[in-house]
Design goal:
The protein has 193 residues and is an all-alpha fold. It has a single domain, classed as LemA-like domain (de novo design (two linked rop proteins)), CATH 1.20.1440.20. It is 76% helix and 0% strand. Helix 1 runs antiparallel to helix 5 and helix 1 packs across helix 6. The longest helix is centred in the N-terminal third of the chain and has 56 residues. The radius of gyration is 23 Å and the shape is elongated.
Length: 193
């Protein structure tokens, strides 16, 4: 009788420990996604100001400016519930975000052709803020993917997989950029002026 109570108590302690660990991992993953979301919103807010600044100097670059605004519109229209996102939805989200990064890259390439724009203090500050935000997005994405990895390992490992199944814990999708995105292209450096 006492042995049975000890075994039941030990199993109960194990279940509680595993459950609490799964909760901790899920909360960390949700927090990491929230960090990505904050940085993406910051980027979305900077883009209209950047476009308006460029428009003042390069108004005939309407196609590039329109492409940036369209890419921003697509990105802001995406609504991801990270706890229920499917692989296809995450892939589409990554594709849209990569498209926005590519459009911004083209905008900065256009700006190179306008010395007055490149010297504009407002443009330089917006460019610095956007580069800083892009770096923060990448750091947040790595942090999120690390937490997803840890959660997925816990959800799929024995005996946690049994407890995860009983309490509705599931694996999450990684936020990976699509192949050929701007982030993975080599940067051209030229010292010629």
């Amino acid at each position: 009788m006492q042995i049975a109570l000890i075994i039941i108590a030990a199993l109960l302690v194990l279940v509680i420990g595993v459950y609490n660990n799964l909760i901790k991992l899920r909360v960390r993953t949700d927090e990491a996604w929230a960090d990505i979301d904050v940085q993406l919103k910051r980027r979305y807010d900077l883009i209209p100001n950047l476009v308006e600044t460029v428009k003042g100097y390069a108004s005939h670059e309407k196609e590039t400016l329109a492409a940036v605004l369209e890419a921003r519109s697509k990105a802001t229209a995406m609504n991801i519930d990270v706890s229920k996102v499917t692989p296809d939805q995450m892939a589409e989200f990554a594709k849209v975000e990569s498209g926005l990064s590519g459009a911004l890259g083209k905008l900065f390439a256009v700006a190179e052709a306008y010395p007055d724009l490149k010297a504009n203090e407002n443009f330089l500050e917006l460019q610095r803020e956007l580069v800083d935000t892009e770096n923060k997005i990448q750091a947040a994405r790595r942090f999120y993917n690390t937490n997803v990895r840890d959660l997925n390992i816990a959800v799929q490992s024995f005996p946690a997989n049994m407890i995860a199944g009983m309490f509705g814990f599931s694996s999450r999708e990684f936020f990976e950029l699509e192949e050929g995105s701007v982030e993975k292209e080599p940067v051209e450096v030229s010292f010629d002026k």
